[in-house]
Design brief:
By secondary structure, this protein is an all-alpha fold. 78% of the residues lie in helices and 0% in strands.
């Protein structure tokens, strides 16, 4: 089975689980807690750092070989799991006030960093350091790393 089909199959099964899981008895056990919040952000950091390393190591092949999507898949699945928790809990957010505040702080700090990264990537693309669409996975993985690391930093700090 090629990479595209594998990723497509996993995403289809995940979306089906998103719709079916809240209707089961198991859904009552799904709750957001500090360990899950920590795990979500650690997975975001790991996927981001691995993606940056592979993007810079493989170059354009990360897009043609669909490694970009494969590396991003664990983070997407973890965020989909938290979406299932949101759907199960209904109104409100599954995150407590501290986690919401930490995510807001992380978003506020990662925005300028990601904008700075975009300017650097544009300059590198203009100087032919990057070719084709390589800037896109580098930017996505950098932003994922910055946001997840910021969330963990503020979560542990407060």
């Amino acid at each position: 089975m090629n990479t595209k089909m594998f990723i497509f199959l996993i995403l289809v099964l995940s979306v089906i689980a998103y719709w079916l899981l809240p209707k089961t008895r198991f859904a009552k056990r799904l709750k957001m807690n500090e360990k899950l919040f920590y795990a979500i952000n650690v997975i975001g950091i790991l996927c981001g750092v691995a993606g940056l390393a592979v993007s810079l190591g493989l170059g354009e092949m990360i897009m043609t070989g669909h490694y970009f999507e494969l590396i991003l898949l664990p983070a997407v699945l973890v965020y989909l799991y938290s979406a299932v928790i949101m759907k199960v809990q209904g109104e409100g957010t599954p995150y407590d006030e501290k986690q919401n505040y930490n995510m807001t702080q992380a978003a506020a700090i990662s925005l300028p960093f990601s904008m700075g990264a975009m300017f650097v990537l544009y300059a590198m693309y203009k100087e032919a350091v990057f070719e084709g669409l390589l800037w896109f996975p580098v930017y996505v993985f950098f932003t994922l790393t910055a946001y997840s690391a910021g969330s963990l930093f503020y979560f542990r700090k407060n």
